[in-house]
User: Which sequence fits this backbone?
């Protein structure tokens, strides 16, 4: 390979990398499709100082004529991953188990701050803003689905009540 060709190849790789970064291509902009299920808008909260917990959010759509159910999730980054739902009781938000989550036919379920979310407990190391984290989502019909989640510290919380156990 000539020196000119090596320089062009390295330059092309850098330009392509910059183009992909500038276009916003990442786990949050790609959809994962498996059978009738589409998983999009995948994001996990970057670690907060002093906390070994985090939460992940996404949208799961079902284009099929039969209901699907998210029954579990797992991640090498945490001791456990649970499907939770935030509930407001007496002006204070608390979390309760929400598994399984049924995705209705021709419908969708939104996992978002203040509602359904994946609760990651016992983080093995901090989740750094701007990174990626792989998780396995386990569905009743579709089975195990690998999904990359964008790690972000910028997740809008809206005007929810303070949540016990989650800073």
Assistant:
């Amino acid at each position: 390979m000539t020196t000119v060709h090596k320089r062009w190849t390295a330059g092309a790789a850098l330009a392509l990398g910059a183009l992909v970064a500038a276009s916003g291509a990442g786990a949050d902009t790609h959809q994962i499709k498996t059978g009738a299920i589409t998983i999009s808008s995948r994001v996990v909260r970057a670690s907060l100082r002093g906390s070994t917990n985090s939460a992940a959010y996404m949208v799961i759509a079902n284009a099929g004529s039969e209901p699907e159910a998210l029954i579990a999730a797992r991640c090498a980054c945490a001791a456990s991953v649970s499907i939770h739902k935030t509930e407001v009781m007496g002006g204070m938000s608390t979390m309760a188990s929400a598994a399984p989550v049924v995705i209705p036919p021709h419908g969708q379920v939104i996992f978002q701050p203040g509602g359904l979310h994946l609760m990651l407990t016992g983080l093995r190391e901090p989740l750094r803003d701007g990174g990626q984290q792989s998780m396995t989502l386990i569905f009743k019909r579709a089975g195990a689905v690998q999904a990359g989640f964008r790690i972000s510290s910028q997740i809008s919380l809206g005007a929810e009540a303070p949540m016990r156990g989650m800073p």
